[in-house]
Design goal:
This protein is an alpha/beta fold. It has two domains: about 90 residues, Roll (Urease, subunit C, domain 1); about 280 residues, Alpha-Beta Barrel (TIM Barrel), CATH 3.20.20.140. It contains ten helices and 19 strands. Strand 18 and strand 19 form a beta hairpin. Helix 3 runs parallel beside helix 4 and helix 7 packs across helix 8. The radius of gyration is 21 Å and the shape is globular. Bound molecules: zinc ion. Zinc ion binds next to loops. The site of zinc ion (ZN) has 4 residues, from loops.
């Protein structure tokens, strides 16, 4: 007998698996929220067990996305308290294929706290998501739960590093090299103590100093390059060139999937990832994140602020669809959204399809639309229809898009 509270047993047949590497047609046995077996030959489920057998008919099966930069508390607050954003509901993540998030505080690490951040991470975990986060925020001294970055990483389960600490930005604390090194060492040592990643996730602003502080930190300290993880590196084209050079020295760099206007001095996430991969620098040292829940200012034709929008987890899938439309192979682009993030951040059982890993899986149809989402072994989206939603969300109703069967 199966415990009614545990995820169902599933047999997924004829899935074209991108693990993220392409491993061809596979059958997967799923139970207890994990991948129990995967084989190119027929899998026999244990006898006497109720099992849902599904033929995917060669559709593409991928690991759920690991979004490395998400304002899980809601971000914003830079245009007055009325511009503070509420937390996104669960289905905004699942409908975008995001099954794990790294939560963080941004500019508003004053009205918002690490306590609130951890509460939101735990709320996402209760609803089946993978959820970790960073201690601190834009500013120094950093906001923490235990009084130190090192203590937060060592003792607070979901906290795995510090960030997004702002540099080269008018909104930053203007940290000096010594201050940056001190806080990076706190993250590194906290990570060593707890077996966590211990990274410093750095928000890069538009400032001309770019990544100079990080280059000096690498040159003048013993800290490993992997500790420094700059993000928003595609916001200026010259900054992106600096980021590629830094990746060649061992840093993992993160591209943000924000909207880029025609003629803007920035690269879209699709352009940036393609350029990075073409550069020949280690393909495992790049990732793409959404900045979901963060504030996106929108400007009219005259350059006036017309309204503000909110970053969405769906930007990751849109970026992948754009790159597939340019005929880039899925296995080439997928690591930046899955395994690269999980490996850098040492997230167990996430970011790849392998026996023993969590059953966080996505199905793409022929037009690269997301038709199915399995989160911890439960269907949240099945053949384009919502099966589960988060707390306070309306019950399943309209599908996120019209599928041909409707
Ligand atoms: Zn930022």
């Amino acid at each position: 007998m199966q415990n009614p509270d545990s995820p169902p047993m599933l047999l997924l047949r004829n899935a074209k698996v991108f693990a993220p590497e392409s491993v061809g047609l596979q059958n997967l046995l799923i139970g207890g929220g994990r991948i129990l077996a995967m084989s190119a030959s027929t899998l026999e489920p244990p006898s006497g067990m109720a099992i849902d057998s599904i033929n995917l008919d060669g559709a593409r099966l991928l690991p759920g996305f690991v979004d490395g930069h998400v304002h899980v508390t809601g971000g914003g607050g830079e245009g007055g308290f009325a511009t503070r954003i509420s937390p996104l509901p669960l289905s905004r993540y699942t409908h975008g294929g995001v099954t794990s998030v790294i939560g963080l505080l941004g500019t508003d690490d004053c009205a918002r706290s690490t306590r609130e951040l951890v509460a939101n991470l735990l709320a996402l975990r209760e609803q089946g998501m993978g959820a970790w986060g960073y201690s601190g925020g834009y500013h120094l001294p950093p906001t923490t739960l235990t009084g130190s970055i090192r203590g937060d990483i060592a003792f607070v389960d979901p906290l795995i590093g510090v960030g997004e600490l702002a540099i080269s930005d008018h909104r930053s604390s203007q940290p000096t090299l010594e201050e940056l090194l001190r806080i990076a060492s706190e993250a590194h040592v906290g990570g060593l103590m707890s077996g966590k990643a211990g990274v410093i996730h750095l928000h890069l602003g538009d400032g001309p100093r770019g990544l100079d502080l990080v280059r000096r930190a690498l040159a003048e300290s013993e800290l490993p390059a992997r500790v420094f993880n700059p993000t928003h590196v595609n916001r200026r084209r010259a900054l992106f060139e600096e980021a590629i050079e830094l990746a060649a020295k061992g840093c993992h760099v993160d591209i943000t999937a924000f909207p880029v206007e025609e003629g803007e001095d920035a690269w879209s996430a699709a352009d940036a990832l393609q350029r990075y991969l073409d550069s020949g620098v280690a393909a495992h040292r790049v990732s793409v994140s959404s900045d979901a829940g963060g504030c996106l200012p929108c400007f009219d034709a005259e350059g006036q602020l017309s309204h503000m929008d909110v970053g969405t987890p769906g930007a990751l899938l849109t970026t992948i669809q754009e790159l597939l439309g340019r005929d880039l192979p899925l296995e080439r682009i997928l690591p930046a959204f899955t395994s690269n993030v999980a490996n850098l951040l040492r997230l167990p059982r996430k970011g790849s399809i392998a026996v023993g890993n969590d059953a966080d899986l996505l199905v793409l149809d022929e037009e690269a639309r997301l038709t199915d989402v399995l989160l911890g072994g439960y269907w949240h989206l099945r053949e384009g229809k919502t099966m589960r939603r988060g707390a306070f969300e309306p019950l399943p109703s309209a599908p996120p898009f019209q599928s041909s069967s409707d």
